Amino acid sequence: MKGRGYLTPAELFFVRNHTSTPAIDVDDWRLRIHGDGVDHDVFLSYDDLRRLPQETIVRALECAGNGRSVFADQHGEELDETPWKLGAIGVAEWGGVRLSRVLDVAGLKPSARDVMPVGLDDLEVRRPLPRAKATAPDTLLALDMNGEPLLADHGFPCRVVASGWAAVASIKWVGSIEVSCRTLLSPWNTDTYVLKGPGFEDDNPHGGSVITMQKVKSALELPWPARLPQGEHVVSGRAWSGEGSIAWVEWSDGGPWQRATLIEPNLPAAWVRFQFVWRARAGEHEVRTRAGDDSGAVQGDHIGWNELGYLYDAVAPHPISVEAVCGGGVCVSQSRE
């Protein structure tokens, strides 16, 4: 994303699918809303959804495993899951219909408790949302991404956007929505996308803490590891925080922490760009960034263990090799004082 704008182009947006992308004929596609939490079953076509009042929101989607590779390095253990660095996040403008409007079409009952969108992929990936999250004004059934219809890999014809929560809650290729007056469970909130390990509360039948909202994070817009020539550089990055907005970002190359400059826009449940000037001397470096949000949450130096390496939010040391500047057969190398 270095040198690009605020929004992530669809073709650069990360893709994490649990199965192959389904081929869906939009002319035959229908969205079914059903269950004991609504007055009656409803079937809506793509055109039906387009005719409902449309909303646009700018929001991030981030995989719960973003940062897993750094998590594994910190704990000195390899994990079997996808070894993301910090690139499993993107910010887009999502257009579509509030999920609450669609639930109202089916007659949402006061006693409704959980709402579970179900995908049309081979595994029928599904994950329940509590009523409060499902009816939040920024929980969408998205039809568009950055002003264009969703691409197949991003959920065409319709996907959920559950603002601020781990992206597994933003189900793709939605074909049905079950609304229940009881607690709903799925493998994606009992077996996976659950924090398991010492110290986690046993709040579901399989143990562990169900993952919902994302944490405060920051990352540099540099390759990992990076190589730079010696000299002065304007280093850029991005910081984000679940449903909040970023209050500040700091950076350090081993010395005192210094404030970075934030670059507007700085939207809640999205991200903010930042930059700072680094006078890089030849040698091996680790540049760290940390951020704080409007709730007072701050990135720490360490994250405790969980079995699948979810929700990494600690400071990530970014390795950078700085090469001496050579000219006329002479290389000038400056060591750190």
Structural write-up:
This protein has helices at residues 46-51, 68-75, 99-105, 131-134, and strands at 31-34, 42-44, 55-62, 89-98, 114-119, 129-130, 139-145, 148-149, 159-162, 174-180, 194-195, 209-210, 216-220, 226-229, 231-241, 246-252, 258-259, 261-263, 272-280, 283-293, 318-323, 325-327, 330-332. The protein is mainly beta and 337 residues long. The longest helix has 8 residues, at 68-75. The radius of gyration is 22 Å and the shape is globular.
Q: What is the fold-level CATH name, i.e. the topology of the largest domain?
A: Sulfite Oxidase, Chain A, domain 2
Uncertain regions spanning at least 5 consecutive residues: 333-337
Element string (H = helix, E = strand):
EEHEHEHEEHEEEEEEEEEEEEEEEEE
Q: How many E-type strands?
A: 23
**Strand sequence of the main sheet, in spatial order?**
2-1-10-5-6
Continuous helix count: 4
Please state the average pLDDT score: 94
Give the arrangement of secondary structure elements:
Blueprint: E1 31-34, E2 42-44, H1 46-51, E3 55-62, H2 68-75, E4 89-98, H3 99-105, E5 114-119, E6 129-130, H4 131-134, E7 139-145, E8 148-149, E9 159-162, E10 174-180, E11 194-195, E12 209-210, E13 216-220, E14 226-229, E15 231-241, E16 246-252, E17 258-259, E18 261-263, E19 272-280, E20 283-293, E21 318-323, E22 325-327, E23 330-332
